[in-house]
Amino acid sequence: MSQDLTKLIVNEKVILSAHLETKTEGGAAELRQLLTAIKKRTDNAELGCSAFRVTRFDKLFMIFEEYEDASTTHYNFESMALRAFMEAGKNIFTKPIIEMSSDLTKLDVSERIILNANLEAKTDEGADDLQRLLLEIKKNTEVAEPGCVAFRVTRFERLFMIFEEYENGAAVNFHFESKAFKTLIERGQVIFAKPPSIVYYKEITA
Fold first, then answer.
1. pLDDT class for 18, splitting at 50, 70, 90?
2. Are 107 and 57 in contact (CB under 8 A)?
3. pTM of this prediction exceeds 0.85
4. Angstrom distance (rounded) from CA 7 to CA 53
5. pLDDT tens digit string along 129-151?
6. Please, are residues 39 and 82 in contact by the beta-carbon 8 Å criterion?
7. Fewer C-beta neighbours within 10 Å, C or N terminus of the chain?
8. Sheet holding 14-22: strands in order across?
9. Rounded distance, CA 192 to CA 29, Å?
């Protein structure tokens, strides 16, 4: 993960994850409208944007974006919709980056759930081990977890961001009980530089 796009291989796909928090409920409603407008633009006018997912919990938002390369990412940054978003954000946002406690019970567990996890390894060797463990989990979700709709693993140096989507809360709990996940937690005691951040959201579709 990097805040500097030039540190990535710019002719390959770029994953962008943004975490936002608003000051008020009114600000959250306004932010939702702004993000919906950006999503509509990416759907209709940005051929290089292959994914733009907006999720929300109360005043907290997480946006998962995927672009074909750095040039299409820059194209999005120069859009009028994003410029309006950044201008309005001066009065809406509480801070640029947020984290939320891992409490699944605060969501309606009968509906689809988005999970966003951020992990950091202590060493380069640990990061390689962590990558192997995460890919094992991804493989397991594909063959043994029908309730897991998406499991995307992204990396920058020792930092990892995982975007996950589940049919419901039961599917999330089933995932946590898998052997592959338990192996990650056990090995993580040696690998992790700090406790993982796990955040739950609901996706905004309109």
1. confident
2. yes
3. no
4. 24
5. 999 999 999 999 999 999 999 99
6. no
7. C
8. 93-95, 14-22, 60-67, 49-57, 197-204, 113-120, 159-166, 148-156
9. 36
